[in-house]
Amino acid sequence: MTVPHPSLQPYIDAWTQSIEAISELVSTLVDGEWNRPTECTGWSVRDVVSHVIGGECEALGDPRPIHSLPRDLFHVVDETTRYVEVQVDVRRHHTGPEMTSELEYIIIRRSRQLRNERRKPDDLIPHPLHGKISVADFLIARVFNVWLHEQDLRRALRQPGNVNSPAAHIARDVMLNKLPRVIAEHAGAPKKSAVVFDVSGPVEFLRTVRVDEEGNGSVDRSPSLGPIVTFTMDWETFTRVVCGRTKAKRVADRMKVEGDTELAERILGSFSLTH
User: Fold this and answer.
1) 267: which of 22, 106, 165, 187 fits an S-S bond (Cβ 3.0–4.6 Å)?
2) pLDDT value of position 171
3) Range in 7-11, 139-143, 270-274 with the lowest mean pLDDT
4) Residue 163 within any structural domain of the chain
């Protein structure tokens, strides 16, 4: 057995904790609970677990299912959602025991693969949605995806937990890295402006997204003396809003917005569903 590169080990450990938590969560579900809706549009608990399984199957290099999607799936709106949905729809009629068995088996296989990882963190690998991506970035993306869906499942099943886990902190950094593009490009924040996110709770942080004179965005830990917008909210609300799990107006009582209201609305409207 080889030893993974030391810099990959924290991500492997975070992924392991989170995906094993999902396995434990769903191991005792009864039939009706598999059909509970989640905050992922169009997806039930079964669908979210199917998506996690499918993501790990593709990480292992398993052949993609040959499957034609129904035409009435309203949440399938483009090629990306169509690509993602195949792994979900192919399992839509699987029973609870079939789901848990496949999940347990995929965890065993993927854990073995990660224990024997020989590639370097910066080695590039192909990805159907992201093009070329480094081994480290791909593993980070898997940690983020698995933790995010663990939280989707926990909310649907009313079983909170792991909000401050190692995977949660990796997910925080992934979400923060998305903010500059959302604010500078999608929301069109003015040049030489700053937007502040003041987040409280188990994962607490203050970050400033700055747009320079060229219109490029960046994020840092330094406070801004005159931000154009300041968002103040708790960690769970931040996660749900940034990842498109809920509209800002539905959690208005858990979020304070100060500054340019039109820009704030554009920013909040630019966050989209993350699968």
Assistant:
1) 187
2) 98
3) 270-274
4) no
- Indicate if 78 and 130 belong to the same structural domain: yes
Q: Please tell me whether residues 216 and 118 are part of one structural domain.
A: no
CA distance 233 to 76: 31
Q: Specify whether 176 is located in the same domain as 218.
A: yes
Please report the pLDDT score of residue 22 as a whole number: 98
Answer whether residue 1 shows pLDDT above 60.
no
Residue 221 lies in a domain: yes
Q: Cα dist. 250→159, 237, 246, 254, 268 in Å?
A: 21, 10, 7, 9, 12
Same-domain pairing of 52 and 83: yes
What is the chain written as a DSSP string?
-----GGGHHHHHHHHHHHHHHHHHHTT--HHHHT-B-SSTT-BHHHHHHHHHHHHHHHHTPPPP--PPPTT-TT--SHHHHHHHHHHHTTTT--HHHHHHHHHHHHHHHHHHHHT--S-TT-EEEETTTEEEEHHHHHHHHHHHHHHHHHHHHHHHT----TTSHHHHHHHHHHHHHHHHIIIIIS-PPTTEEEEEEEESSS-EEEEEEE-TTS-EEEESS--SS-SEEEEEEHHHHHHHHTTSS-GGGGGGGEEEEE-HHHHHHHHHH-----
| Residue type, position 126, single letter | P
Sequence letter at residue 267: I
Nearest to 216 by CA among 236, 241, 192: 192
Cβ atoms of residues 49 and 36 within 8 Å: no
Give the pLDDT of residue 3: 65
Contact 175, 208 (CB under 8 A): no
Q: Are 11 and 109 in a shared domain?
A: yes
252: left (phi over 0), alpha (psi -120 to 50) or beta: alpha
